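Running this now, will post back.
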Amino acid sequence: MSNTKLTRKERYKQNFLKTREISIIPVRGPILVVCEDSKSSVIYLREKRDALKLETTKIKITGESGSHPSSVVEYARLEYYKNKAECRKTKQLHYQKVYCVFDVDSHPNLSAAIQRARDLNFIPIVSNEAFELWYLLHYLDGVPGPLTRSELNNRLSIVLGKTYDKSASGMYDLLKTKESNAVTLSKKMLEDAIELTTERNPYRNPSTEVHILIEKLNELATSPSKITK
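Update: finished.
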């Protein structure tokens, strides 16, 4: 055992690193989240993950796939099998869940992309018209009517008190105290879409499934070692 005495600075650094290690919540079952761009959804979800102190090496959130839903699913497929092959060599757990996050917009063949994700046992997280609907739900008292992307951004700018910027950081910190309201409205919209309409379309405008991913991150923060089906 070394008798070398640590300097005050070295002791401080050592204690800081120990505290930092303890504060990070380990995640036993890693997950992959693939978004259609590197802006709003990626920034927000990474901020959420980091605020919950979840292990960043086990929860990968990326927007490198391209903006089309089919490219999101294909990127997720390639990443999943690449990770599975690597983990087979290292004897570690591969991605236990894969989420594909995309907007309805005017994308052709959206239904095919959603079905492809399901066929791969991936979880589609769809927002109609856009991910920004999730932000707006934090401020509403009830379910809104149909919204175009421009209307959505305009309403968001009004409640924020400034022009909404898709690439701005800090949205999670700004909205976190209202998260339960957004979850409640998000679930209500999906229930209405399926139960109260003739077309029974869960992706009608407006709707979003972002709450599914949000609740999963919250679950990991409270029971990190649990892997759910």
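The chain has one domain: 26-222. More later if anyone needs it.
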